[in-house]
Amino acid sequence: MSTNILVFGEQRGGKLHPACLQAMNVAAELASASGGVVWACVVGHNVTGVAETLAEHGAALVVAVDDAKLALYRAQPYASAVQAAVEKAKPGVLLLPATFMGKDLAPRLAARLGAALATDCTEVGMADGRLRVRRPVYNGKASCELRLAGDRLRIVSLRPNAFPAAGAKEPAGKIEPLAANPKEGEERLVCREIVRTSSGVRDVSEADIIVSGGRSLKSEANFKIVYELAEALDAAVGASRAACDAGYQPHSRQVGLTGKTVTPKLYVACGIDGAIQHLAGMRGSKVIVAINTKKEAPIFQVATYGCVADLFALVPLITQEVRRLKGQ
Fold first, then answer.
1. Whole-angstrom Cα distance, residue 286 to residue 305?
2. pLDDT digits (tens, 9 = 90+) for 304-321
């Protein structure tokens, strides 16, 4: 029996979240293994460009719920819109990126639709007609494998950067509009404005490259060398819990179990010893570079490349070399 796959195309301000193209790649593999087709849905206002991107990257049909009342994210109206797309597409699997929005929507949809739910998955595949997923447990020290039978909808959220992104495909799929049809009472839930407090520095949860600093930097002013390397690498700036608790950086940049879980292509840890809580939040990084004067620091156990060196001497040299190679 074939299984159709539906991908929720998360957008912000009319721009598709990069993790959605990674979900499209997973959807294509699942559809190929089960003989189904890939659908996608997008919710918001003026989302034609987002829908076209999904159609160009493997979606046979994109359901677009376009309404001015959905311009800003609200959990219940968005859940109703995605539910309407599910009822139209009748998929066997719904994929979402495990972003803040995805983590909010996935359990709501599972409760509404009586679906099986697996969150923050790093591996997905089909085995004997069942959906096989793997997700980290116990702060990333172990992983568990779940097999979800096909007797109901299966909702899976995917950890960003754990999968490659789908490339463009031809011919592009079709786009079909769908009315929002909010449930009774949801019209009263109004979000009038979203105020962004970011200083313009890229968020660690969405970055391909992260440069993080620890308590060894000793002050907020000394984080300047971390920012300079991040700027040269076009990276986000992260920090350990100890650095955030000391006031060197805001908690919005904290990486770790009590902060944000990240899986970038490159993670540079400057003066971070590697407490278990921090390792749980970044051990999924593709390449880890650790700079620390303590050769016995736990961070070296997970590092791809380890540098036993003074970060105040080495980091500026790396920044200088990166700029030279880029011709800056």
1. 12
2. 999 999 999 999 999 999
pLDDT, one tens digit per residue, over 18-77 is 999 999 999 999 999 999 999 999 999 999 999 999 999 999 999 999 998 888 898 999
pTM listed for this prediction: 0.83
With contact defined as beta carbons under 8 Å apart, do 240 and 256 qualify? Answer: yes
Strand order in the sheet with 123-127: 123-127, 130-137, 142-148
Cβ-contact 120, 135 below 8 angstroms: yes
pLDDT at 188 over 80: no
Other C-beta atoms lying within 10 Å of the C-beta of residue 64: 23
Residue burial 306-326, b: 16+ Cβ < 10 Å; e: rest:
bbeeebbeebeebbeebeeee
Do the domains 5-188 and 204-326 sit in the same CATH topology, yes or no?
yes
Using CA atoms, how far apart are residues 140 and 133, in angstroms rounded to an integer?
A: 15
Mean pLDDT score, 270-277: 93
Interatomic CA distance for residues 42 and 70, integer angstroms: 11
CATH number, domain 5-188 = 3.40.50.620
User: Looking at 39-43, 114-118, 282-286, which range is the least confident one?
Assistant: 282-286
Q: Where are the domains of the chain?
A: 5-188, 204-326
Q: 35 — phi, psi (to 5°)?
A: 75, 20
Residue 100: name the closest of 256, 250, 206, 182 by CA. Answer: 206
Confidence of residue 189 (pLDDT cuts 50, 70, 90): low
Per CATH, the number for 204-326 is 3.40.50.1220
Cα–Cα–Cα angle for 291, 239, 303, rounded to 5 degrees: 35
